[in-house]
User: Fold this.
Amino acid sequence: MLSPPSSYSNGQCVDPLTIVQYNLYYTNPNLTPFLDYLEKNEIDLVVLQETAPWHGDRFMELIDKYPYQFGGTPGLGYPSGQMVISKQPLNLKAQNTPAGHYMISGVWQSSEHRPVSLYTAHPPSPRSEQLWHERNALIGSLERLSDYSPYADTLIIGDFNLSANTKRFTDVYQDYHTAPLQSWPREIKGLPIPSFSRIAIDHLWIRNTESPSLFICKREVLSQFSGSDHSAVVTYLSKKD
Assistant:
C-alpha cells in the first residue's frame, strides 16, 4: 500500500492552534535546529518522544516562550521518554500500565474558554510477539481512558508504532479524525530512506462533541531536522461552526 503523503490540507486555516510532535531519538546529538525552529515560530503545543535527560535540559532554554512543561522534574522524569511543553497551561498526569508503559492524560488550556483533553503515549515498537501485544494493549488502554474525556475537544498524540497502512489503524479511535503522514524511517543506520518508502506512525487524532469544533486544517512533515530516524510533524487546528 502507498504511504500517506508528506502534507495534508483541508481548507483555510483561520487563527489556528499549532502543534508539533517529534520523536527526538535518545542519542540525537543535534537539537539546535529544532530549538531554533520552536523559538522562531508560533507553536502552541510540543509533544516529544524518546527524550533523554540532556534533551530536557536543552528545552529548559525555551522556558520563557514555553513556560508550561511536563516531564523532567524529580520523581517524574520522562514517562516512557515523553515530554510536553506549551505556551498555554497544562494540567497533566502520568499513568502506568501493567507492562510498565506510561500514558499521559489531562488538560491543555488552549484558550481561556476552550480547554482540550490531551492524551499522549509512545507504545513500544512491535519487534517481538510480546511487544506486539504490549503495543496493542497500550493503544486499547488509551482509547478506554480517552472515553472519559470531559471536554468537547479531545486530542490523542504520539509515536504509536502503528502504520496507517494496516487494518488495526483503521479500527482504532473510530470516533476521531486523523490525517496520517509518512514520517518514518528517515534513515536506517545512517543510510537515508527515500520518502516513498516511509510509513506513517507519528499520529494525531481529534474528536469533537459540540460546535464550534476544532478540526485538522493542515498537517506537514518537517524534514529539515536531522539526528532522528523520525521526521517532526506540525499540525494546524482551526475552528468550524
In short: The chain has four helices and 15 strands. The two ends are 35 Å apart (CA to CA). The helical segments are 32-40, 53-59, 129-146, 167-171. The CA atoms of residues 102 and 118 lie 14 Å apart.
